[in-house]
Each structure stands twice: as structure tokens, then as C-alpha cells.
Design a protein that fits this description.
Layout: H1 2-11, H2 13-97, H3 105-114
Amino acid sequence: MPAVERLIKQTEPVPEVLRAVEQIREQAEPLSELLPALDSVKRELGEQLERLQELIVALEGDESHLNVTARKLVDELVAMHKTVDELQDDVKSVTERLPDASKGPLEKARDVLTGGAADPSP
């Protein structure tokens, strides 16, 4: 009989374990309903990540195009700056060659045609 009593004592916690298992099952049941919703969220996030990746690739392409365009604009500005400097030099050179404003029109014309001022001495 002591063996039977030991067996009964060993099996006493079984109903409590069964109740705990049933409680766990009841608590886990709503979780199984969440799995499809979680799968849907996961799928949507994956799709959004793909769209973001495509957008990033497109933006990187635009950035590269903008960098090339900016470099071209800088090159054109440098060329324009050089041209303006050359024009300024030309204007200065032409201005320096203009006849003296205090001279009359005939003297100015003679200076321009002869390349210099006439000698004022007779």
C-alpha cells in the first residue's frame, strides 16, 4: 500500500498541471488570431521597404545627375569669368588708345590714323 499511496501523491499535482495547461491554451488562443495580422503587417512592411529602396535608387541617380550638371555649370561659369576678364582687358586696351579728349576732331582723327599724337613743334 505504501506504493499506491506514493503513486497517488505523485499524481496529485496532475490536475493542477492540467488546469495550468488549459489556462495557457486559453491565453494563447488570441495570439493565434494575431498571427495572420502580423503576417499582413510583415508583408506590407516588406513592400514599403522595396518601394523605399526603389526611391533611394532613383534619388541617387538624380543626385548623380545633379552633381554632373553642377560640375558643368561651374565649368561654364569659369569660362564666362575668363571671357569677361578678357573683355575687360580689351576695353582697357581700347580705352588707352583713344585720342585725348581735349583735342579737336581733326587732331583726334590724325592721332587715330597715324597711331600717335602729332609732334606739336613746327
